[in-house]
Design a protein that fits this description.
The protein has a domain of about 325 residues: Beta-galactosidase, Chain A, domain 5 (Distorted Sandwich). Helix content is about 15%, strand content about 30%. The two termini are about 45 Å apart.
Amino acid sequence: MDSRKKKIIAFVLAAAVVITAIPATSFFATGTEGTQTEDTQNKDTQPPKPTDTENAGTAATEEPVTMADYKVIAESDTYRMYFYEPRLSVILENKQTGKLLETTLSDAKDDGTNNATWQGYMKSGVVLTAIVGTNDTFQVDLLTCEHTKEVTYTDNGFSAKIYFTEYEFGLTVEAYLDGDEFVVNVPEESIVEYKANNYIGTISLYPFMGYTYMDEQEGYMLVPDGNGALIYLDNKEGRYPTGFSQMIYGNDAGFAEKTTQSYLWGEYDTVVDANKVIAPIFGMAHTEDELAYLAVVEDGEKRAYIEAQPNGALVNYNRCFARFVLRTVYVQPLNQSNSGTVKSVETDRMHSDLTVRYMLLSGDDADYSGMAVAYREYLLDNKLVSIKDTSYNTRVDFLGTDREEFLMGTTAVTMTTVEQIEEMYKTLQKAGVKNLLTIYKGWQSGGLYELPINSYKADSTIGGTNALTKLINESAENGYNIYLYNDALRINARTNLTTFDAMKMVNKRTFEEEVNEQVYDTFYYLMPGVTQEKLEKFIKSYTKKGADNIALAGISNSIFSYSSRGVYYDRYDTADIYADAVSSIDESVNLVLEQPFAYLWNHTDSFLDMPLGSSEYMYVDEEVPFLSLVLKGILPMYSDYVNFEADKTEFFLQLVESGVYPSFYLTHENSSALIYTNSSDLFSTQFDIYKDIVIEYDAALRAIAEQVEGAFIIDHVRMDNGVTKVTYDNGVVIYVNYSENSAAVDGITIDALSYKVGEV
């Protein structure tokens, strides 16, 4: 939704995001009865179903395992791969330095404080959870659970067919070196479940990949929170019962349970939503050993969590990994009033390969800058992004009209008309602002929250359709490009029928998004197929008028499971429909996306609302502009709105540092007129107040952008004196001083709270 949460007071924000600790004996939700599904695909790659379990033992050994028990099974130019078969344990050795990355806990580093369950978890190359009837608290690993295993060696690794005899399910784990990358994969067709009401709940592949004990190693874990964040590998002294645990591409609304929001004085939301995971990545850096990896979840990512647990979170080891969800448990109401419920298990599991690719980095590349460079090259090489026009634009968005209650209905509150935009553009042009990007919100007939948008029809209070079309076309000739905002995800129940179009969750209840606003307090999600149909109609009517600029929201950063007419669809089905719709639109119009998930990056001309910070979890030690380092020079990125930032000086310096372009959300009228609308939280938007700031930002940031146009960031370093040094591949270096004292770097003095541009 186009709604910024109000910031109340600092202590409220500090406690805003709550992460639930994971019990030592259970890593996921509770399970219940489900319907047995039979996997009959490609039996040659499936683990054999044993006819007896006489020889199905465990991988536990009485004697401690040492390096001598490992054997070399593959090598690349830089790395040597050691393997210990009983645990599927891999050790990766840098051949130049002799430094090691371990994938499972070694017996030598076992601190002896953990029970058998944790021993199995930490020392097994693959860890599953089993759903048995109504219970999914069963951990399944290679040390504590009876299993059979058939290992085949390949030119660059191994393939292991594993069958857990008690639960009668199995899978194949493949691991190999691909050049200087370590790849772990579970083929979808290898997953089997033979026993009724026994299912695989989750799969974690090498959950201890690159682990460290307490503070034995300097370094950090990279987590995809906001733009990027680091969790140091120092001794956390048991302060945090848990760490980062977020689903890639956001939580699944299809399994949402209704919760009671917490409001201050019944009006202000006291819980700030955490940032969604925009990209399927995580990383670990051993800076002392100059060894690191960036992991990309290539397959299965739409049903996976990124986990990054610091020492003290249940055990004394730092570890990060991907946890794949094959099946989950949900609450099924027994009646319309939801007065009775039972637990149910998804009737079918996720059908996707599960793949994590670890890009191994060493030397000067073994830090988050090296990770960013590696990810950028990965995206470009695999054609997951394409280089777009990154020319500088200041983004100035306008709100057209919203609604407030009036007698038996609503009345228009018009904030910015077409004619007023034209006048404001003239003011900026006279001041030397060469070009702009504008997202026009609330342009449609009925105002900002008249959703979904069914056709190109502008509200009469802003000037009507013809006037808007004329403004779009004439402004483009002067370099001022107007994009019409379309939230293609939501339905407003008060303005549109929802009987057949509203998304139903897996439990067949209609999903409701409740907001504490003045006029419209409940929204629904469109069924993905309906979204695609309505977008096609809208684009057809829009381009027929001769305009072709669209800003899409909602579907750009939301995917979910749902049910329709008794058929279950998962997040992959939704993502496929959205990707198809966005790809089709991208071929016919100029398209920009609001905070798009990585799988859509190749279909947007700009990245709107790039976060500059993180969710400010207590265990995060440092925020880094990781995504900005990756995408700078590929996509133009635009920030959240400057006029809603409390510390504009620091925010400006962050823009300089990250290469992100500024955004403003403005109106012609004073924002006090919005007090009785859903846009009441837009507390400071009047153009006359911000025009000078827009002009100043435009001049300063445009000058920097012109010096780094088309260049990539290759290094980003935080100095102890408060200066951040950003190096581009064209030789330009930007120094940003966040301290309140002047500081010198490379013989250059940077004033307090200022920046300088130099060269290598």
